[in-house]
Amino acid sequence: MSRATMTTSTGSSADAEPLRVGLAAALTASAAAHLPVLADHLHEAPWLGWLFVSFIAASLALGVVVLVRQLSWVVPAAAGLSGSAIAVYAASRLIPFPQMGDDVGDWFDPWGLVAVAAEVAALLVALKLARVRTALGGETE
């Protein structure tokens, strides 16, 4: 059944479209928030810098896929990526990571706050989108 014709008593697939756009935007914002500190992290803690590179690539790739395809794994992957990033940010503020001990207690780093805000937005939108998709019968391509 096509997205245009599938409807239920809880809504239609058109209800998911703004959420998909919102999820892509939040993932893109999260990726962008990591760019200003990427060079420093690659220099000071290369292992973390390369994790940032991986995170940026994964965020952008998921943002594109969520817009162009309705695959069953994309929304949970976006939620997992965003939730993991939030958890790592919190952990890095509580315990010293190798080569990054100066982050402990620095809860109000401006780019960190931007990243966490975007990640929280992506997580919340992904959870809402998963709920809408479940109500629509989990339609996928």
Structural overview:
The chain has 141 residues and is mainly alpha-helical. The protein has one domain (12-135). 70% of the residues lie in helices and 3% in strands. The chain is built from 4 helices and 2 strands. Strands 1-2 form a two-stranded antiparallel ribbon.
Write a brief structural summary.
The protein is mainly α and 141 residues long.
Order of helices and strands: EEHHHH
Unreliable spans: 1-10
**Global mean pLDDT:** 89
Assess the beta-strand content as a share of residues: under 5%
Spatial ordering of strands, largest sheet: 1-2
Q: How far apart are the termini? A: 10 Å
Supply the key terms.
single chain, 141 residues, two-stranded antiparallel ribbon, 4 helices, 70% helix, mainly alpha, disordered N terminus
Write the layout of secondary structure elements.
Elements: E1 7-8, E2 11-12, H1 16-44, H2 46-68, H3 74-94, H4 110-135
Antiparallel strand pairs: 1-2
Helix pairs in contact: 1-2, 1-4, 2-3, 3-4
